[in-house]
Write a structure and sequence with these properties.
Elements: H1 11-14, E1 25-27, H2 45-52, H3 57-60, E2 70-79, E3 86-94, E4 97-98, H4 105-123, E5 146-154, E6 161-169, E7 176-184, E8 187-194, E9 203-205, H5 221-237, H6 239-243, E10 253-255, E11 262-264, H7 265-268, H8 284-299
Parallel strand pairs: 1-10, 3-5, 4-5, 8-9
Antiparallel strand pairs: 2-3, 5-6, 6-7, 7-8, 10-11
Helix pairs in contact: 4-5
């Protein structure tokens, strides 16, 4: 999946004006007034991390999700951080997680995104192992970066078509889809992520192109694989993307209720790190709050409250 630019968010990125009537858009769902209070657990983040890391040795290497189990096989993972990433070829690969059979490709991607978001939520505030000295060590209390394949079958005959996406979780390339496997009848197509602009055969760039669901059928493998990672990757992060996975495009404007203002999808994904702290299953309310906050900063106007 794409690597969003590691830059500080600005109001102009997070709040833009839709480009005329022809711009595709959908509105966020504002549930802030009726939603139950959200508990602020930030002060206990260290305690939460310690509890997560205090489970038995075999389990503490991974977040506390019952579906996450080491497969005994190996996969590439990334240690370090944004300033000093390190590839490790012999990292932890989890057993495959299968979601329910789906009616079509869009539903399959939604179901995969849902599970990936659940896994991602268990990694939030994890204290990661970032070096070979503490990676996958019995006496280390740290959570290990890992890959997990999530698979969905779909169509009239689900045994004929399947999507398997390999998600990476860790301090670097967190939540990215680093491998795609597409199965049609007995054949399988495989694409792997490349962090560079130039990609080889059966590779896709980590930087999204302008792609919609229809381009999962593209003859260009780089575009096709990128389409899968874009929809299922961002769908795991943002609920509004998952909800509109069959229609969203690069330039879709995600609008605030009771306003014609919003943020383009291609700008929203760039804010995941700095604005949303790399959380998963982000609700519409969180996007609305950040849009309004940045609109006030940008325009100098006072927010008008809904009566």
């Amino acid at each position: 999946m794409h690597a969003e630019k590691q830059v500080r968010d600005t109001p102009s990125r997070m709040f833009i004006q839709p480009e005329g009537k022809g711009t595709q858009q959908f509105r966020l769902r504002d549930n802030r007034g009726s939603a139950a209070p959200i508990l602020d657990n930030r002060s206990s983040s260290v305690l939460q991390a310690k509890c997560m890391n205090s489970i038995p040795c075999m389990q503490r290497k991974l977040p506390n999700d019952p579906d996450l189990t080491p497969s005994g096989r190996q996969a590439k993972v990334w240690l370090g951080n944004i300033d000093d990433p390190k590839e490790k070829s012999k990292g932890i690969l989890c057993n495959e997680i299968s979601v329910i059979d789906s009616g079509d490709k869009a539903e399959a991607l939604k179901n995969i995104s849902t599970k990936a978001g659940e896994v991602g939520a268990t990694t939030h505030k994890a204290i990661w192992a970032e070096s070979d000295n503490n990676y996958n060590k019995v006496d280390s209390p740290l959570i290990n970066p890992f890959q997990v394949p999530i698979m969905a079958k779909y169509g009239v005959n689900p045994s004929d078509s399947k999507i398997k996406l390999f998600y990476h979780y860790g301090p670097y390339n967190h939540g990215y889809i680093v491998k795609v496997e597409l199965g049609y009848n007995s054949s399988v197509e495989t694409g792997t992520m490349n962090n560079k602009d130039q990609v080889g055969e059966n590779e896709y760039s980590s930087k999204h192109d302008r792609i919609i669901l229809n381009q999962t059928e593209d003859q260009d493998n780089a575009k096709k694989f990128d389409a899968y990672t874009k929809l299922a990757g961002e769908g795991a992060r943002f609920q509004c993307v998952k909800r509109n996975i069959n229609t969203i495009s690069n330039n879709t404007v995600i609008c605030v209720p009771y306003s014609n203002q919003g943020v383009a999808f291609c700008e929203l994904w760039k804010t995941w790190g700095a604005t949303f702290n790399k959380e998963f299953n982000i609700k519409d309310d969180a996007i609305i709050d950040n849009l309004w906050k940045n609109y006030v900063i940008l325009s100098g106007r006072k927010r008008r409250h809904r009566s």
